[in-house]
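ESCALATION

Customer reports they have been waiting on this structure for their group meeting. Please prioritize. Original submission:
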Amino acid sequence: MSYGGETDTDFSDAAASKPASRPGAGPAESGGADTSAGAQGAGPRTGKSTSGSGGEGASSRAGSGSGAAKGGGKGTFCRTSELTMEAVDSSPDQKVGDVTVQLTNKGGRTCSVTGFAGVDLKDADGASAPVHRGGEQPRITDLKPGDTATFSISYTVDRGGDSLASPTNIIVTPPNETHSVSLKWPADALKLAGPYDEKIKVHPVGIAD
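Update from on-call: job pushed to the front of the queue and completed.
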């Protein structure tokens, strides 16, 4: 299986069964297989992952890279299976809600996690909702083996005790990937003011300065 949702295809038999191209024939007539749109045009697909500390899950959408990721070309982005992930409470005080997701490269190569991760919050009843992106510009974030990058989820803290949002899991899809993992919502995180809406933001992956 190739990166970004493509599947390996043997074009040899198909090419042999088609007539030879004639002079002046356009791409649609020549019988040549165009595989260039595989990674760029493939839509999100759900799948299972063998990594992550919180079990397996399927996100409603794929993580997204960024135009800033000029150093991360096709085939260099970290696969979900190459990352170990963990969600921890990182709220600076009792007024600001913040959960940080750590992504550690457990593979044997340097790879990129530049961009926004796809994030859904899941309740105990199984209902889930996507988290909106913040407005920051992602920075190129390459991970050497053993290195860790993070992204945060910020939210409004429930002060009245009437929250309609009680997340139990965070479904994470790394940037430019389609396979997800399900992480436990930190038990010590501040209560999130519901319902799930645009006040909950996911921020780009980065490495602390």
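Sent to customer with the following note: Residues 1-60, 67-74 have pLDDT under 50 and may be disordered.
Escalation resolved.
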